[in-house]
Amino acid sequence: MKKQALAAAILACTAMSSNAAIITQEVSFGQQGSPFDVADVSPLSQSLFLDAFDQTLGVLNAVNIMVFGQIDSEGTSVNGSAEPGRTDVEIFLASDWQVSSAAADTFTFASANFVNPFVSAQSSAPGTFTMLPNDPSASFMFDVSSGERNGMLSNVDISAFLQGSQVEFLFTTDARTNIFNQVQGGTGSFANDFSTGSWGKVAVEFDYTPNAVSVSEPAALSLFGAGLVLLLSNRRKQRKQ
After folding, report:
1. Rounded distance between C-alpha atoms, residue 69 and residue 100, angstroms
2. Going by C-beta distance under 8 Å and a sequence separation of 6 or more, which residues neighbour residue 162?
């Protein structure tokens, strides 16, 4: 019975020190869905910094990193011509939209493409002209978005989070908003106004093993006492039998 009580005590201590734990951290720039907070996306160069892992907590086992991004453009086009008109809004990526860091492989939300627009909007179908001349009520109001893009970084270097310094994540692209105006005939005159912005976020998950929890002297004595009581109780039962 002594062995059983001692084994129970060792098992309890082992359970306290071997459980894995997780800490999360998030940083972001801009406001998701807003074209105004980070208006200059031509080009975009925005850094986010994550704090290093606090090694006093335990041993770091793994680091999982998710990145998020979104590009939005909002504006109006007013036809000041003498003829009905139409408007096309297109956003092209002149360079890859990506996140780079020394702590992991580069992640690409979307690749550069000079031929096909990344996102677009039209006031009407090609060949139809619905923007009436000199009529502010017929102005074209547009709000185009990439929607939220996200992904997990690969080949994360755990040691980068054990140096005690912050880890940088750089969001870059060159998103160019183009507005094309047409009239049914004659010369066109339009007033265009727009703003294009970006939002980004990095979320990290630290998976670690906490340091062993030391048992205080009163707690140790209490555990020993519980084992002793169990041992005496079983001896009494044996004598009665």
Report:
1. 13
2. 52, 53, 55, 60
**What does pTM read for this prediction?**
0.79
Whether 224 is covered by a domain: the verdict is no
Tell me phi and psi for residue 72, to 5 degrees. Answer: -135, 145
Length of the chain: 241
On whether the CB atoms of residues 85 and 129 are closer than 8 A, the answer is yes
Looking at residue 70, what is its pLDDT? 96
Cross-strand bridge partners of residue 168: 49
For the chain, how far is it from start to end, CA to CA, in angstroms?
Answer: 16
Closest CA to 31 of 223, 192, 199, 174: 199
- Read off the pLDDT band of 136 (50, 70, 90): confident
What type of residue sits at position 206?
F
User: CA of 53: how far to CAs of 67, 130, 171, in Å?
Assistant: 18, 58, 22
User: 103: exposed, middle or buried (C-beta count within 10 Å: 0-12, 13-18, 19+)?
Assistant: buried
Q: Which residue in this structure is represented by tokens 């003829």?
A: 83
Q: Is 84 domain-assigned?
A: yes
Q: Dihedral angle at the C-alpha atoms of 24, 171, 110, 103, nearest 10 degrees? A: -60
Judge whether 206 lies within some domain: yes
- Give the separation between CA 152 and CA 170, rounded to whole angstroms: 15
Task: Look at residue 1 and tell me if it is in a domain.
Answer: no
Residues of the domain holding 74? 20-211
